[in-house]
């Protein structure tokens, strides 16, 4: 296989399991890989446009269709290098001999033709070359609109280093110089599922069983030809409320190998405003209401799987359990309910519904973080584990593997991507862009030191650092809290932790006044805030990147701070205490790097390599 012709972005997923000891005790170890939020963009696409064919890249001898570094720095994900990271992940999976690979949504940039077709080409190559079987479910980026739409992007890299807009029609960006290409439009359910139909969306002759929510689970009389005829999207629709409007639901359950059922949940929700359909990124908080038929179906699937001794593995783009180690409520109180994408956190009621339906272990993407969450109901009758798979397009760049080792034991491992071939293939083009921004005194100039990154892990880390500085702190953080955290020394924080509430507020107020007076002369130090994002996004993986001296500092400071009292009246003191309370919960998390789950005894255990 010619890897230079491929090179994609990533996958991710979500999983559940209800295991029968009698089945798994008799079968060999089975493995599944999860690649979430690939966000694949074809970086050498044929735009089929007379207006623009891309930027010639001397490093490859081809025309690159890439987005600007300026746009990457201001996005929660990369657009370009993740293409190469996807190939690196697939090559690693190939070396491990893993045959089942799940992509739980956001497998393309925005479901555009050029990107869906590029993904198909890559998956076809690995299926043919390595015997891999891929199983996909939808994400909020694919499809963006259920029936497709005209679309465009204004931030492709132009031939002189400036931005080049590309759209399906001039009307998308009427005030810009637009290159016209239908390859950048949004595809809908029909086009995406038909193009990628052999990757789970429709039954395959290789499957032992396949069904969707709108048909009976007749396992004993399963017939491939009948399943194929019943799988067309027209037979897989639900009414949106009582509107008389119907949307597809691409959920399915499949048995690709003896004993394992993969349950793919389409959690996308769309609303119609009278003129167009709009998507949502909320997830199951909305799907539990708008797609109630799914819950009824999950109950039937889970019961049937248990009766037949199948390992039921549920996956979706969206999480089903709170993913901030129980800190989401405190984060909402401190930062605001609309910050940190907190609206995406599943409510306890939502989690309860899916746990009672039979979901035991769930692998999800969407959040671009590494995390393990657990839910117990009051009687501990229903327990659910939610495993967040990172994105290969952001920090930490990683995928996960699942081993079913015995009756009720799962082994889950996070596989980071450090070395990615061709990672710097576009760096000279970014330097051209940087020169253009400097010459034109563009306020969006970015720190070119990111181009000195020695590997892909450092590159995504530097991306997060720049994103924190340019977007996260200005938009999400209380101004005074951010100033204090960037200027208080370790010794000052230790001293503050020993003060009572009144003393602490007075100390912080005086410190803040001095900092604001000297604002143009002081050097900021975002170390604590950057460590916060290492923990929030990377969990155990991020914690391992914090230097030992700072670990020692936090372990001395935080136990004292979380004992401090605070009231609303003393705002500076309150915000600082709340912040370190959140930091503490993120710091003391469930295992997420390499661990086992015992479903029989409902325990989770860290595996020390």
Defining key terms:
single chain, 609 residues, 23 strands, 36% helix, 18% strand, globular, disordered N terminus
Word description of this protein:
- The protein is an alpha/beta fold and 609 residues long.
- 36% of the residues lie in helices and 18% in strands.
- The strands form six sheets. Strands 5-4-1-20-21-22-23 form a seven-stranded mixed β-sheet. It has a seven-stranded mixed β-sheet with strand order 9-12-13-16-17-19-18, with helices on one face.
- It is globular and about 75 Å long.
Write the layout of secondary structure elements.
Blueprint: H1 21-24, E1 30-34, E2 55-57, E3 62-64, H2 69-73, H3 82-96, E4 100-104, H4 113-130, E5 133-137, E6 152-157, E7 163-167, E8 178-180, H5 189-195, H6 197-201, E9 209-211, H7 224-230, E10 237-239, E11 246-248, E12 252-257, E13 260-265, E14 270-272, E15 277-279, H8 284-290, H9 292-308, E16 311-316, H10 328-335, H11 348-357, E17 361-364, E18 371-376, E19 383-388, E20 398-406, E21 409-416, H12 427-439, H13 456-476, H14 479-487, H15 490-497, H16 501-517, H17 527-538, H18 540-543, H19 548-561, H20 571-587, E22 594-598, E23 603-606
Parallel strand pairs: 1-4, 4-5, 7-8, 13-16, 16-17, 17-19
Antiparallel strand pairs: 1-20, 2-3, 6-7, 9-12, 10-11, 12-13, 14-15, 18-19, 20-21, 21-22, 22-23
């Amino acid at each position: 296989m010619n890897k230079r012709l491929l090179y994609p972005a990533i996958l991710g997923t979500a999983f559940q399991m209800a295991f029968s000891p009698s089945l798994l005790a008799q079968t060999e170890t089975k493995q599944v890989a999860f690649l979430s939020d690939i966000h694949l963009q074809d970086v050498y696409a044929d735009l089929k446009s007379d207006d623009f064919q891309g930027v010639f890249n001397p490093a490859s001898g081809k025309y690159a269709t890439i987005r600007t570094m300026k746009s990457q720095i201001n996005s929660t994900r990369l657009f370009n290098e993740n293409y190469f990271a996807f190939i690196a992940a697939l090559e690693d999976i190939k070396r491990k001999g893993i045959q089942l690979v799940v992509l739980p949504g956001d497998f393309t940039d925005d479901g555009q033709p050029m990107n869906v077709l590029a993904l198909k080409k890559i998956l076809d190559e690995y299926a043919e070359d390595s015997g891999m079987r891929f199983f996909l479910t939808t994400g909020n980026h694919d499809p963006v609109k259920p029936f497709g739409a005209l679309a465009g992007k204004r931030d492709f890299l132009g031939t002189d280093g400036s931005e080049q807009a590309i759209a399906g029609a001039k009307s998308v960006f009427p005030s810009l110089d637009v290159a016209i290409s239908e390859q950048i439009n949004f595809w809908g359910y029909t086009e995406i599922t038909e193009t990628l139909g052999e990757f789970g969306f429709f039954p395959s002759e290789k499957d032992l069983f396949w069904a969707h929510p709108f048909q009976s689970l007749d396992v004993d009389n399963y017939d491939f030809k009948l399943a194929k005829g019943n799988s067309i999207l027209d037979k897989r629709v639900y009414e949106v409320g009582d509107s008389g409007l119907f949307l597809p639901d691409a959920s399915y359950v499949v048995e690709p190998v003896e004993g394992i059922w993969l349950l793919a949940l389409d959690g996308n929700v769309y609303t119609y405003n009278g003129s167009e359909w709009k998507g949502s990124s909320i997830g199951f908080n909305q799907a539990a209401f708008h797609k109630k038929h799914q819950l009824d179906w999950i109950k039937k699937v889970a019961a049937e799987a248990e009766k037949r001794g199948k390992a039921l593995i549920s996956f979706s783009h969206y999480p089903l359990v709170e993913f901030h180690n129980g800190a989401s409520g405190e984060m909402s109180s401190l930062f605001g309910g609309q910050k940190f994408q907190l609206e995406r956190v599943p409510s306890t009621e939502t989690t309860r519904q899916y746990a009672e339906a039979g979901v035991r272990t769930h692998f999800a993407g969407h959040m671009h973080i590494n995390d393990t969450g657990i839910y117990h109901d009051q009687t501990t009758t229903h327990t659910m584990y939610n495993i967040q798979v990172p994105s290969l397009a952001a920090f930490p760049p990683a995928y996960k593997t699942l081993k079913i080792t015995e009756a009720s034991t799962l082994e889950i491992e996070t596989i980071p991507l450090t070395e990615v071939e061709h990672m710097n293939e576009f760096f000279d083009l970014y330097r051209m862009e940087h020169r253009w921004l400097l010459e034109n005194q563009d306020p969006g100039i970015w720190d070119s030191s990111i181009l000195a990154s020695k590997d892909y892990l450092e590159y995504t880390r530097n991306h997060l650092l720049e994103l924190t500085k340019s977007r996260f702190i200005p938009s999400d953080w209380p101004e005074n809290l951010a100033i204090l955290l960037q200027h208080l020394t370790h010794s000052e924080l230790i001293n503050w932790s020993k003060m009572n509430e009144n003393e602490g507020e007075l100390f912080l107020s005086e410190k803040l006044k001095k900092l604001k007076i000297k604002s143009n002369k002081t050097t900021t130090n975002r170390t604590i805030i950057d460590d916060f994002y290492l923990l929030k996004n990377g969990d155990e993986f991020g914690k391992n990147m914090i230097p030992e001296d700072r670990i020692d500092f936090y372990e001395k400071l935080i136990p004292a701070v979380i004992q401090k009292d605070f009231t609303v009246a003393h705002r500076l003191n309150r915000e600082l205490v709340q912040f370190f309370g959140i930091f503490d919960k993120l710091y003391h998390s469930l295992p997420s790097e390499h661990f086992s789950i015992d479903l029989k005894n409902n325990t989770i255990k860290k595996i020390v390599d």
